[in-house]
């Protein structure tokens, strides 16, 4: 599969086929129902709009070193993507998809940063699993996420289904709140102004295409 030229949506078709063969039909049904319910329940996702100033933050990276937004902005623009976790196949697909275009993002004077509420250990897992060359940061308790996107409590049905499939959801996080950010992408200019802000809603199966990020950086 050549993810270089494929869009996220094209790669999503392959992922859905794979999930259909890997997961019991009932389990996939529970996850899909959850995604549809989230889409229905969450309409106004973004806490920051184009033109707003992005709040500064300092978060631990995969090796527990602190990364500060204001420091990154000294070197150029910053693209921030909020994702759910390393257990989420759609997150892994999105991050791997963005990795393929990382050189283009860098060439346009920007750095890419992925943020989730996972522990630094899990951030390291996601980095290694997807061979990511960009910063993967841990936002324990979704402190930063709340300022940028909507945070919600993961429902019992998907968590219980994960447990039945042998995945320990809670092990990925340092608290037991089960709160997750709704995936969203932001482009932050050097002066901390938001120049692009987008989420495709509560349905986490859909993600912002990297082509949209590239176009936003070209403006």
Automatic annotation (TrEMBL):
Keyword Disulfide bond: yes
Catalytic reaction annotation: a hydroperoxide + [thioredoxin]-dithiol = an alcohol + [thioredoxin]-disulfide + H2O
GO CC term, one of those recorded: cytoplasm
GO molecular function terms attached to this record: thioredoxin peroxidase activity
EC class name: oxidoreductase
Record-linked CDD domains: PRX_like2
EC number: 1.11.1.24
Pfam family, one: AhpC-TSA
Domain Thioredoxin positions: 48-219
Any one biological process term the GO annotation gives: cell redox homeostasis
Function comment: Thiol-specific peroxidase that catalyzes the reduction of hydrogen peroxide and organic hydroperoxides to water and alcohols, respectively. Plays a role in cell protection against oxidative stress by detoxifying peroxides and as sensor of hydrogen peroxide-mediated signaling events.
Name of the featured protein: thioredoxin-dependent peroxiredoxin
